[in-house]
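User: I'm putting together notes for a lab meeting next week and I want to include a structural view of one of the chains we've been expressing. I don't have a solved structure, so I'd like a prediction I can at least talk through. The sequence is below, exactly as it appears in our construct file.
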Amino acid sequence: MKQENLDTISVLREAGTAVISDVFDNLGMEPMALANDLWPTTGERQRAFAGPAYTVNGIWKQGALKGDRDKLQAIDEMPEGSVAVWAANGAQGICCFGDLLATAMKRRGVAGVVVDGGVRDLGFLRGLDLPMMIAYRTPVQALGRWRVTGCQGPVTVRGAIAESVTILPGDIIVADDDGVIVVPSLRTREFADLAASWELKDRAARDDIENGMKLLDAVAKHGSL
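Assistant: Thanks for the context. Below is the predicted structure for the 225-residue chain, given as structure tokens.
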């Protein structure tokens, strides 16, 4: 990945999902935030992560208990620094992966994982040092119930404001304590520049408020809070 792209991703990660959401609003766009029930495998605290989306799509499909080679290939091809985005497409009660496939993703060097679906082996995943945001946990495997249909194509996952959010390969995924948000790949530089400026404004406003400035005076000085 080019250094310029790494720098842009770093700016977005440091700015955080809340600031990026405000940038969407400032541009007159609906924030591309993902479902609010996604939660970190580590508990309440989430180490922030960001990177270009590597998308994995799948469907609920009853069948024989046999291996899913497309799933294994999708993980084998994940590039370092990417964020793996798993779209379970409404599958309930089954896991997209567990400890072994998560270990493979960590070894591939992915920056983080977002699962609009389930995982298992949560006790192991908590200690893996691979940040994840997931919809649910389950002991039930996917074999014979859910399978991967493709990777690196558009995927649709549940949204926080909109009913759904479509993610394209290469869109920038940012996750932190406040949730997960998507920045369109064609506008990452624009969003990074605006997010950096917005963060500076928020920091200055926070300092003034901590020093006793009244909120209405802070709004007059800094704009919306």
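A couple of points you could mention at the meeting. Helices lie at 3-15, 17-26, 69-76, 99-108, 122-126, 188-210, 215-222. The first helix runs from residue 3 to 15.

User: Perfect, that's what I needed.
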